[in-house]
Structures are given as structure tokens and as C-alpha cells.
Amino acid sequence: MTGISPDIIAVIGAGASGTLVATQLMQHARRPLHLLLIERRPLIGRGVAYSTTNVYHLLNTPAEKMSAYQDRSDHLVEWFQQRQDLPTEWEPITSWL
Ligand SMILES: Cc1cc2nc3c(=O)[nH]c(=O)nc-3n(C[C@H](O)[C@H](O)[C@H](O)COP(=O)(O)OP(=O)(O)OC[C@H]3O[C@@H](n4cnc5c(N)ncnc54)[C@H](O)[C@@H]3O)c2cc1C
User: Fold this and answer.
1) What pLDDT, in 10s, does the model give residues 22-76?
2) Ligand 1 centroid distance, CA of 43 (Å)
């Protein structure tokens, strides 16, 4: 067998931090990477804070300040605006209930 053996990295805990570390590792990898994202919850990326199903739980930080990327401050807002299945920020919250 030829080629470069992949680096093997395990990220334990796939809340926001672990998931973002994993995305950064994938985006910046310069050689084959075998990434293990280990999470005990059913969905990755949510963690404790973003697993809530209560619609009254709102972000306590402006979306403009919650980008996952240091050099793309509008990333979260752009992602949100591209999602057709989510309420827009202008929609009254009472319409969600
Ligand atoms: C109720 C609440 C609301 C919040 N609201 C906001 C907000 O509006 N804005 C904001 O900026 N911040 C908010 N925060 C802070 C928020 O928690 C952090 O911004 C961020 O989500 C923390 O992510 P984390 O990945 O570090 O931790 P966590 O989200 O706690 O993720 C850790 C993950 O590791 C997993 N895990 C732990 N141990 C193991 C194991 N042994 N094996 C496998 N998996 C494991 C857990 O299941 C979890 O999914 C809030 C926090 C809480 C508790």
C-alpha cells in the first residue's frame, strides 16, 4: 500500500467547540486526516446550550457577534439568511408559538 498514512485525531465532545475545531482541522489539513468526532448526544454541534427545544430560549448574543470564523464576522447571519426553513429575524416571535 502506498501513500501517506492519515493523521488520526479524535475530538471528544461535539458541542459548538468540538464541532468548530473539527471543521477547522478539515479545512486546514495539508495531509490526509482521519477525524473522529465523538459525541454522546444524538446531534452534533448543539451541545447543552443549543439542544433546547423551548422556543423561549433565545440567543443571548447578537447573531453578528457569533460567527464561527474570525475572518468572516457575518458568517452566521449569512447562513441564517440562506436557510429557507427557518423564521426570518423580522418575523414576530409569536408566530413561532
Ligand atoms: C442554557 C445555555 C444557554 C446558552 N446560550 C448561549 C447564547 O445564547 N450565546 C452564547 O454565545 N453562548 C451561550 N451559552 C454558552 C454556550 O454553552 C457556549 O457558547 C458553547 O455552546 C459551549 O460549547 P462547548 O462545545 O464548549 O460545550 P458544550 O455545548 O457543553 O458541548 C460539550 C459536548 O461534549 C459532549 N460530551 C461531554 N463529555 C463527553 C464524553 N465523555 N463523551 C462524548 N461526548 C461528551 C456533551 O454531550 C456536549 O455535547 C449558553 C449555555 C447554556 C448552558
Assistant:
1) 999 999 999 999 999 999 999 999 998 889 888 788 888 888 888 888 899 899 8
2) 12
Q: How far apart are the first and last CA of the chain?
A: 58
Instruction: Give the start-to-end residue ranges of the domains of the chain.
Output: 6-49, 52-84
Task: For the beta carbon of residue 78, count every other beta carbon within 10 angstroms.
Answer: 10
Q: Is the CB of 5 under 6 A from ligand 1?
A: no
Q: Which residues contact 74 (CB under 8 A, 6 or more apart)?
A: 64, 67
Decide if pLDDT at 97 tops 60. Answer: no
Residue 52 CA, closest ligand 1 atom number? 1
